[in-house]
Design brief:
Bound molecules: 5-O-phosphono-beta-D-ribofuranose
Keywords: Signal
Structural class: alpha+beta
CATH class: Alpha Beta
CATH architecture: Alpha-Beta Complex
Low-confidence stretches: 1-21, 24-48
Number of helices: 5
Strand content: 15-25%
Mean pLDDT: 85
Pfam family, one: NUDT9_N
Helix content: 10-25%
EC number: 3.6.1.13
Family: Belongs to the Nudix hydrolase family. NudF subfamily.
Largest sheet: 7 strands, mixed
Shape: globular
Distance between the termini: 30 Å
Radius of gyration: 20 Å
CATH topology: Nucleoside Triphosphate Pyrophosphohydrolase
InterPro entries: NUDIX_hydrolase-like_dom_sf, NUDIX_hydrolase_dom, NUDT9
Number of strands: 15
CATH superfamily: Nucleoside Triphosphate Pyrophosphohydrolase
Order of helices and strands: HEEEHEEEEEEEEEHHEEEH
Amino acid sequence: MKAVSRNWVASVHVALSLIGLPYAAGTSGVCRKNAISRSLFSSKSVYMSPAAHVKARCPVYPGSDTRRFPVPDDKVDWDTDWPQYSPVNYTAPTVLKKPVWADPEIGPFSPQFNSLDGSVDRRSHEGSYRLQNGKPLNPHGRTGLEGQGLLGRWGPNHAADPIVTRWKRVSTGQRVHHTNSQLPVLQFVSIKRLDCGEWAIPGGMVDPGERISQTLQREFSEEALNSLQASPSEREKIQKRITELFNSAGLQVYKGYVDDPRNTDNAWMETVAVNFHDESGNSVSELPLQAGDDAGQVSWIDVDSSLALYANHLHFLETVAKERNAHW
Ligand code: RP5
C-alpha cells in the first residue's frame, strides 16, 4: 500500500505540472484580496475583510446566462445610498422545482430568520443580518442579483470545509523544503468541482440537524474517497482511518462568509473550515483518493500562494500554512 501510494503521488505531481492545474499564472487572483484582517471567535480563527466580496459579484451568474447588475467596490455597502441599483432577479430552475433541500418563495413562506428554525439553522456566523421586504440581506453587501440563485436557503447556507494536510516527502520519507522559502511544503486534498471546473477544498453543505464535525467527515469521505461506492470491507477500512483523523484535534482556520460565486443579495454561503493534519504521513495519506459524485478529480496538491482555487478557499489555506510554519 505504501509503495503504491508514493508512486501514485509522484505521478500526480508529474501530471499536475503537465496540465498546469490548479496553479495560477503568477497570481492568485481575487483571492489575494481576501487579506486576513482581524481575529474572530478565537486566536485560531480569522475573518476576511468585508470588502472581500469579489467572486460574489462575478459578471455572469454560475450555471446560467444571467448577468448581474454591475456593482462597483464603492457601492457594495448597503448603507451607501444608490437609488439606481436595479439587481436582476434570478432563482435557478433546479431550486424552483422545490427539491427538499430548498426553501420556497418568500410570501406564504416566512421562515424564522436569525434563529434555529426547526432543524434549519438560519443564524449567521457573522451575527444578526438585516431583512428588507421580508428577505434577508447579504451581510457583505450588494451582489447585483436578488433571489435564491442556485442556493437552497434564503439567508445563510451553511457548509463545512475539511482541509486534510500532510507534509510533502521524498520516496525515502524526508520532508521536502521549498527552494525559495526553505520551509517544509504542505500538501492538501483538493477536488476539481464538476459544476465549474475549479479546484477546491472538498467541502459540502451541512444537512439540517447535522453537527459540523459530522459534515466535515462525511463530505471528505464522499467527495475525496468516494466511500459511497466502496465495498463494505473497504468502506470499513476507510472509515476507521478517517474517524481517527477527524477525531484528532482539528485546527479551525475560518468561520464565516464565503466569497462564493453563487451568492446573491438574499442568499449566501457560510462555512467552518477545519484543518486535520496527518503529521506522520501514515494515516489518510495512504488511502487511495477517488473522486466522488460532485468531483471530477481528486488530488494531493502542494500548498502555495500561487494556487487558483474556488471561492476564497486560498485564504483558508494561507492560514493553515502560516499556523503550521509551512511554505506559502
Ligand atoms: C463553498 O461551497 C464552501 O466553502 C464549500 O466548499 C462549498 C459547499 O457547496 P457544495 O460543494 O456542496 O456545492 O462555498
